[in-house]
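Internal tracking record. Fields below are filled automatically when a chain is submitted to the structure queue. Please do not edit lines marked as system-generated. If the sequence contains nonstandard residues, flag them in the REMARKS field before resubmitting.
Queue: standard
Priority: normal
Entity type: single polypeptide chain
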Amino acid sequence: MISALIVGFGSIGQRHCRILTELGAEVAVVSSQTDLKVRRFRSISNALSTWSPEYVVIASPTSQHQSDWLELARHGFAGSLLIEKPIFANMAEKPPKFDGNVYVGYNLRYLDIIRRLRQSANATEVLTADFYNGEYLPDWRPGRDYRNTSSARRSLGGGVLRDLSHEVDFLHHLLGEPRSLISKVGTLGELQIDTEDTVRVIGEHQGGCVSTLTLSYLDRVRRREITLTTPDTTLRANLLTGAISDGFTSPSLEVARDDTFRMMHREILARRVTTACTLSEGLAVLRTIEMIEQSSHEKRWVNR
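SYSTEM-GENERATED OUTPUT FOLLOWS
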C-alpha cells in the first residue's frame, strides 16, 4: 500500500484525500483542522519525523507552495511530489534542490475532450484558437463568503488568472507557449475583492497561429469553451457538457472530473508519465501568467 501525505485540507486537499483513499493509498494530512476522520499532523516536520510517505501532494494556498516544498526538501523527502496549480505565486519563487519527481496538478489534461483536441492540433495546422472560461465567483463555493476565500485575496495568490490557469495550460498543451502576447487584466466588476476579475489575451504562436484567452469571475451564465480553426474545419468544444462539434457531427465525451484526478495519480504513482504536467511545464505556465500581467501593466506586446 502506497503512503500519501496531503499538505493542506481545503476543498482540493479533501478531494485528493478521498480519491487517493479510494485508490487504496494510506493517506494522512497536514492541517490545522482538528476532529478529522483521517490521520492528521500539525506540520510537515511533524509528519516526516514520525512517518515516511512515498507520495506528497501540496494542496495549500498558492502563496505557501514554495515554503511547503522547501520544508519537505529540508527534511529529506525525495519521493514523488504533486503541487497544485499554479506551481508558485510568481517566478521569483524558485524550486529548491530536490531529488524526487515533481508534477503540477493540471489534471484536466486527462479529459477526453482535451485529448481529442490535442490529437487534432498535432495532426494539422491550427490557424486560430479561442479559449474561454467564465463563471460567477460568488457561486463557486456555496455556503462560504467568497470575499474570504483565497480567490479574493492577492496575498494568498488568488485572482482569476491563477485560479483559472488550467486554460493557460490548455493553451500550451494544444498550441505550445506563445511567442508574444498582449493583454488586459482588470477588476471590472463590483465583487469587493482585491484581485483581478477579468483577463483578455491575444497571443502569437510558432507557425503563425493566433490565440485568444478570456477568463472571468463575472459571468452569471457559466461558460467554458475551446475553439480551434484549421484549414479544413472548426472544432468547437464545450468543456462543461463534453460536446465537441466539427461542423458536421457533435459527439459528446463524458465529463468526469474525479476520473481525471484518478488518472493523474495513477500515472504518477506508476512512474510511467505521459500526460501529467512536469515541473518545467508548470513553470512555463507561470511564465506566461507573468507575461500577461506585464503586458497589461505596460500596455504593450511582450515577447517570451
